[in-house]
Amino acid sequence: MENIKLTGTYELHNKVEIPCVGFGTWQVPDGETAADAVIHAIESGYTHIDTASVYHNEIGVGAGIRMSGAAREKLFVTSKLWNDVRGYEETLKAFDASLKRLDLDYLDLYLIHWPRPLAFRDTYQEANRKTWRAFEHLLEKGYVRAIGVSNFLPVHMEGLLKSARVVPMVNQIEFHPGWMQPEAVGFCREHKILVEAWSPLGSGKLLEDPQLNRLGQKYDRSAAQVCLRWCLQKGHLPLPKSVTPGRIKENLELFDFAISDEDMGVIDKLECVGRTGSDPENAKF
Length: 285
Ligand code: A2P
Fold this sequence. Notes:
By secondary structure, the protein is α/β, with parallel strands linked by helices. 38% of the residues lie in helices and 15% in strands. It has helices spanning 32-44, 58-68, 88-102, 124-141, 154-161, 182-190, 210-219, 223-233, 245-250, 261-268, and strands at residues 9-11, 17-19, 23-24, 48-50, 76-81, 107-112, 144-150, 170-174, 194-198, 237-239. It is globular and about 55 Å long. 47% of the residues are buried.
């Protein structure tokens, strides 16, 4: 937790500051719903918005960003390259298309969404390496302030690092009580790669867990807040998602309480839910 500053940011290994809680938008429908959710998130204090081309809501997310009236440089916006695209030129084109849909001039963070797409399964390491060259180009030219990956296990990361000039700044993986992915997290720690946690609430399933609810009562917080604070105290960056105004606000109210070391240990041992998403090695897309 030592790298959390009072302002609520982490520092990536290239010195870029990243707000330490992000607003996730997976499954948020495009158009007005996405725009309203983003506006509400920004009004509630979020400055970090996470989308992806496959979420099919970049247009709505971009509209929300503009309609919020927030200064662009005060926000941190992430998008991701989908699995149907690999290769240098193809990646640059896909990035450009995301930027146009969002109607932005630059992104703060761009991620390779999954390591082993079905379309490139036999040659995925080579395909990722070509794509990474394009990511490095985008970084060098200032179209993006940081680059990273998502759902990469150590085996995928090792393949990429064989030819990478820039080590990814971020790996966004499924991470929550009951699914802590120690190998992937250990690899990231060793290479100073920030772990972002998708589905930090176990896709909502953790909120019924009796232990988390008991701890919530102890700290006078919700089970969701206990999960998110636990994630922060482990030094990771949670990306909770919600379309419910009260919950959007609640999920950011994490900085005026701390979980004791003993209770951190209790949460570490919870086996309430395992993986809720796909296996990066064998995803069916
Ligand atoms: P909703 O969008 O209807 O508010 P995760 O981020 O782990 O994928 O979990 C997302 C799910 O958890 C969504 O179904 C969301 O519902 C729900 N959720 C998000 N924040 C909270 C909260 N503070 N309390 C209860 N449910 C929440």
